[in-house]
Amino acid sequence: MTAPVRRSPLAHRKPASAPDDLLHLSERAFDAKIVLRGTPDILGPALAEVAGVEMPEPTRSTTSDRHRLLWQSPDEFLLLGPKDTELALLDALQAALDGAHVQIVNVSDYHTTLVLAGPKARETLMTLSTLDLHPRGFTVDQVAGTTFGHALGWLVQTADDEAEGGPVFEILVRWSHADYLFCELTHGARAFGMPESKPLSGELMEI
Amino acid sequence: MFVIDCPNCGPRDQSEFVYGGEAHIARPTKSEDMTDAEWGEFVFMRTNTKGLFAERWWHATGCRKFFNMLRNTATDEIHAVYRIGEKPPKVDADLPATPAGEASIGSGNDAVKIMRADAEAGS
Ligand SMILES: [Zn+2]
């Protein structure tokens, strides 16, 4: 018997970078991710207590030192937290919302997170998205569920365009679409000198 | 392709949405008392309007909510977006006559025109 180990969907890929820090692309796997369904007035006090976050306005997200809360629809919110905290979060939220008309689901292994950082992050996303990604159209803490090429994902800007190494965007993408999206993003950044992403093992993906 | 102003998410590309058919068709509450013809009317028959049309759309990639829209099916001009459960707002729609002077319902499909001829004559 071997001990069970988990393997992220992009374990076979190295983080990719374009020269001169124009763009860094990497995966951050195993964040705690909890979907909460319910009205903001019911969820608000529990989320403030458990994660220290306020309820976000539509199409926005809010943060505390360890958590980020994404608006996903008028009655649906996604709470992100540090690795390996999902079960503790789940217990705490279930206790705080006991008896309330809500749904709380652990979706930590449903999505993985791709992180795009650097001055060419916007332009790289523009190669795959129909969103208005002008700095006036998409700002820090903004959230959008949309498609990137053929992959569905949730986009959130986590650091300002003026920040050191910024702007930073994160895409929550389904496990099985992560490799496709990683390849499409490196492909989209080819104009900025991004090298082709060669997997550490397995076959090369042709796109 | 056009941009749709989702009432929850704001303006997004049409490719993010899925068409939901004609709006304001209430599901019958006593389907067990209905004849096949009445059930068929509910399930299949739509007005297929050429011009201003109230229809449902679903924001598939974003908020995943249905909402209603008033759209000119001849020109794709969107006149209003409103939520499920709301009545269609009054709009000033300057509707162009169809180029061939066709009936205001129907798609050129003669079967539709014949079945709806009485409705046309009566209105
Ligand atoms: Zn929406």
Short description:
The complex is a heterodimer of chains A (207) and B (123). With 207 residues, chain A is α+β, with helices and mostly antiparallel strands. Chain A is 19% helix and 30% strand.
Explain what you see.
The complex is a heterodimer of chains A (207) and B (123). Chain A has two domains: 16-29 and 110-192, Probable tRNA modification gtpase trme, domain 1 (Gyrase A, domain 2, 2-Layer Sandwich); 32-106, Heterotetrameric sarcosine oxidase (Alpha-Beta Plaits). Helix content of chain A is 19%, strand content 30%. Chain A contains four helices and eleven strands; from the N terminus they run βββαβββαββαβββα. Chain A has helices at residues 40-51, 86-96, 121-126, 178-188, and strands at residues 16-18, 23-28, 32-37, 61-63, 68-73, 76-81, 103-106, 111-117, 143-148, 151-159, 168-174. Chain A is globular and about 55 Å long. With 123 residues, chain B is α+β, with helices and mostly antiparallel strands. Chain B has one domain: Folate-binding superfamily (Folate-binding fold). In chain B, β5 (66-72) and β6 (78-82) form a beta hairpin. Chain B is globular. The model of chain B is unreliable at 111-123 (pLDDT under 50). The chains are: A alpha+beta (207), B alpha+beta (123). The A-B interface holds A 58-59, 72-74, 76, 130-132, 144-147, 152 and B 8-13, 15-16, 61-65. The structure holds zinc ion. Zinc ion binds at residues 6, 8-9, 59, 62-63 of chain B.
